[in-house]
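Could you please consider the sequence and fold following this short note?
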Amino acid sequence: MIEKLYSIGEIAAKTGVTTRTLRYYEEIGLIEPDLIKENGYRYYSERTATIIPVIKYLQFMDFNLKEIKDFIDNGDYEKKMISFKTAIARTKEEINKLKARIAVISDWDKLINESVIFHLINKEVPIKVRRHEKVDVIKYDMDFDFDYKKLILSVDFANFVSENNTTITDSVMAYYPSFKKRIEDEKNKNTTPVVCLQKTVSKIENIENMTRIEEGYYLSTYHLGAYNNIIDSYIRAENYAKEKGYTLKNEAIERFVLDYWTTTNEGEFVTEILIPIENYEKFREEQE
């Protein structure tokens, strides 16, 4: 019985691939036409076309065409098993990348939602005490000249993160060993020491490049708008602490909620200032 032959266009439509793809498969030896006429027209039997579902299925498993050809041509089952193990390892790596991507997107979405609230109320944000949970972050020491764009979008910090084979997520943070020195340095137009902090999607091997924001009670205030008058928000926080009888620690964190990563409009920036309270638990006990 003579098997029916199909033109390249017909077999392409039947198998769901393009004629260009079929020609390339022929070029690399994955498929051979049953008949090539003098005019160059190619014809395929249905039996010949059965290789196409195998190719498509292996492509779904992330095999490239070279790997597919080796898999089909090679009768060594041990090598086939190695091929599958390689594909599994590659797929797991891709899953980890997708998990990291979801984490980064989710954290960024939360920051935008957090900032939208302050733009909606459109008034001075009240100062409050909030408990901050401990969080491990990557750290990068810098001399800060109060150019916030260079700090937040630091090329050096980005390279440092890449060297540590990790991905950053959530807000960029600036840690100052002394917020009073930070204020004075800005007033005097001096550079000031700062540690750039950010959460990472995965742990890094070199623990010396990690630090921890300790859990505890922090005085929290949000600075809205450009950074040129952020000192006013520090002064507001200090005055509030004096009124309440809180003793503030030296250090402070600026947490950039809405910044240059999301918008170029500095009037829309939202920055949380966090200053740890030294005696809050004792103070609260005395009040009770």
